[in-house]
Amino acid sequence: MCYEICMGSITDFLTRDHERLDALLARAVQDPDRFDYDSYAEFREGLLRHIGIEEKILMLAAKQKNGGEPLPMFRQIRLEHSAIALLLVPTPTHQLMAEIKLILDQHNPREEGPDGLYEVCERLAGEEELPALLERIRQAPKVPVARHYDGPRAHTTAASALAYAAQGSSKG
């Protein structure tokens, strides 16, 4: 099929973005005595854009193709997206980045793997709609990034962020 050869697939595009983000995260913490804030800033903005692409473009398109019903996998993916976003709020540290990596190491395979989010969304879109969907993903704008907040409600562990996010998802 020319689409995959000529344009690439959503899976390829977003998996490469995961790899780019992983490299930025690794660069931010590679020196245990110094934190690379520039790499982190690029990682943070890129990860928030990536989550936005998945939530506002990919998952929305899949929901529409699924008769307006969210796919069962969306709940866990959204829970993890929420927890990751919570961990991006405080000022970054090596320990905080280890917590984010903990979630990403479990999260990314849910999206990339066989029958993962990307593959399922590609199937639902169908060959006719894939090029337009991929173009919307490629054109997604940068996301505005807020200043860090280190107040009393800032989450600094994956466990606390996941628990807080789960509380919010059980209310809606």
User: What gyration radius follows from the Cα positions, in whole Å?
Assistant: 17 Å
Helix content: over 70%
Low-confidence stretches: 1-6
Number of domains: 1
Can you describe what's shown?
The protein has helices at residues 2-7, 10-29, 37-65, 74-87, 94-112, 117-138, 158-171. It is mainly α. The chain has one domain. The protein starts with a helix and ends with a helix.
Question: Which descriptors would you attach to this protein?
Answer:
172 residues; mainly alpha; globular
Concise summary:
This protein is an all-alpha fold. It has helices spanning 2-7, 10-29, 37-65, 74-87, 94-112, 117-138, 158-171.
What's the arrangement of secondary structure elements?
Blueprint (H helix, E strand, L loop, with lengths): L1 H6 L2 H20 L7 H29 L8 H14 L6 H19 L4 H22 L19 H14 L1
Helix pairs in contact: 2-3, 2-5, 2-6, 3-4, 3-6, 4-5, 4-7
